[in-house]
Amino acid sequence: MAGTDKRKADAAKNLPKGPAMVLVVPQLGDNIGAAARAMLNFALTDLRLVAPRDGWPNPRAWKAASGADSLLDNAKVVTTTEEAVGDLDFVLATTARPRDMVKPVYTPEEAVRRMRAHLKAGGNPGFLFGPERTGLTNDDLALADAVVTVPLNPAFSSLNLAQAVLLMAYEWNRAGDETPDEELPMADTRPATKSELLGLFTHLEEELDDTGFLRPEEKRPAMIRNIRNLFQRAAMTEQEVRTFRGIISALTKHAYRRAREELGVKKSGD
């Protein structure tokens, strides 16, 4: 989904601190670039690369980053995992395979909850991601405080490197996001008041009475309630009420005009 606002580039320079994302022996430059793009989508900027297989810099990474060049330009490139995590004090390793290690295993939600608490306390946390083909080695896992495992289809639990980074970056952002579950942008209008809605109802009902729609008389109260409930469910704005009343007026004037024209034709034919 395209949605980059280049006018906010300056704000991006002051993004809040987040966890380091450590890619251990990443194989493809395309995946490194896609991972950087995913990180910047969720305001993460600390990218670390451990011995990229095809060397560094890799032009394909910049091409796949789709504008997240700053992360690639400032990526920390080292030769060992130990170097990459040396300044970190809380490391979570991502893996889909069970290992013969006594180590806590977290869901993504629990992982980011603990990591946010650690960061808030002044810590310096990070995630470890393994190579696309083999994943992290046991020696890499031994450097982690715990393991993060995503609940996937057990018969097919393979994630692309960039997908894994995106998933953890999304969970990280979601845990601290305060966006309401639902909102309705009003632009230059506002919700209609009950007085405005009653004006619409009266206007419409008068015209419906005039056309004979609200008949027979004994059914009129129920028909009016149904019509009013219909508009109430629409949660109309003030602008929509005015627009709809304009529609009613236009249709009414058109009907009167046609009636006069038809009457004129009949008189001329007499």
TrEMBL record:
Its main location: cytoplasm. Its EC number is 2.1.1.200. One of its GO terms (molecular function) is tRNA (cytidine(32)-2'-O)-methyltransferase activity. It comes from the Bacteria. InterPro entries: Alpha/beta_knot_MTases, RNA_MeTrfase_TrmJ/LasT, SpoU_MeTrfase, tRNA_m1G_MTases_N. It is found in: Cytoplasm. GO terms for biological process: tRNA nucleoside ribose methylation. Coiled coil: none annotated. Keywords: Cytoplasm, Methyltransferase, S-adenosyl-L-methionine, Transferase, tRNA processing. Belongs to the class IV-like SAM-binding methyltransferase superfamily. RNA methyltransferase TrmH family. NCBIfam families: rRNA_methyl_1. This is tRNA (cytidine/uridine-2'-O-)-methyltransferase TrmJ.
